[in-house]
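Entry 14. Two folds queued back to back today. First construct below, sequence then structure tokens.
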Amino acid sequence: MSFPIQRMRRYRKTKTLRLLFEETRLAPVDFILPLFIAEGLKSPEPISSMQGVMRHSFTSLAREAAAAHRLGIQAVLLFGIPKKKDNLAKEAYDPNGVIPKAVKLLKGEIPDLAVITDVCACEYTSHGHCGIIVKGDVANDPTLGLLQKIALSHAQAGADMVAPSDMMDGRIRAIRQALDQKGFSMTPILSYAAKFATCFYGPFRDAADSAPAFGDRKTYQMPASNAREALREIQLDIEEGADLVMVKPALTALDIITRARQRFQLPLWAYHVSGEYSMIKAAGKLGWLNEEAAMAESLLAIKRAGADRIITYWAEEAARFFK
């Protein structure tokens, strides 16, 4: 059967018909809001490379999280920026550190909000890498113990979920064992399972003050060229005990999201990262494209590819748009 019997434009004749035939839908529950909390700030501080995003004080963090929750956003992802940094990231697992304090604050003021914490060392090390340095590179196995301490400190503070983003081999099993041994067997692990080395993390590193002081992260984050390797990474993390998995970045890895959705049954999230956000923001500011439309199309593409939930700096704007 072909034209004129089959006319695809019949589905698009009116706005009502377009809604009735809509295949991919987004709602506020689909979005997770990343938030930066900087120790010592008295008021929120704009991030120059991420228009509209702030480093928060504890007071403004609670205010922002509450506003997001009122929009229907069910979860936030916390990144901490400490006052002090050292080679061993000691502040990362301090029970009185920036993230444990933030978790306690949010769970006390907004108990129904799910608080997810990033588990990594890059914001806390003086060298900016994601683990312990030995002979000029991140040493995998010594870093596992550090990650265990970080995850445990977050769980003890009341985090609803921990999210290791370091890309060390074996980290999911190590964290799962540490949590279970200390009575946190019901704390889920969101694994940054397929995390690619990319230029699109640049604005985040500005926001979190976490750019490497030397070298790069290509010995632990994945090369953008490798799809089969990404699926192996996801498979291994599932076998080690991940409760849900993430692909990062989202827009340049839509094929990985689709292949992972087809292959694995676990919840699958995607991170719409800082560079993807900032380039659209910049183009919108210059009048080169409609920012709101570009935001909506980008998020729909990520959902259409197969992501169950999307971590995005546009969470609040998107929640209003897709309400």
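Second construct, same run, same settings:
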Amino acid sequence: MTYRDEIILETFDVRVRILTLAGEQATAWHFHSEVTDKMLCLEGRIAVEFRDPSARVELAPGGRCEVSVDRIHRVVNLTVDSAKYLLVQGVGRYDFNTVETTG
């Protein structure tokens, strides 16, 4: 299984997607300049990791997390099997601004 991005709904200022990460896969460190991310773990276990300041929220199925505008973050699959989460992004113009990794 590889990364999968299934768009459920997309308008000018809202996106609803189901994302699947392969075992131990992670998204790039990034931030959004207008939209808030709202995540709901559907399968497996994921972590939402934050920078500046550093923090980590672990989610099992049914667990939720919100990432505010301009907050640097990434999503990590904590298992060797695939993990799936629902991602609601809005309200605003979508962007994906990657951030250099350190160390």
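Quick look at the second one. The chain has a mean pLDDT of 95. The beta strands are 4-10, 14-21, 30-31, 36-43, 46-50, 55-59, 64-67, 73-77, 83-90, 97-98.
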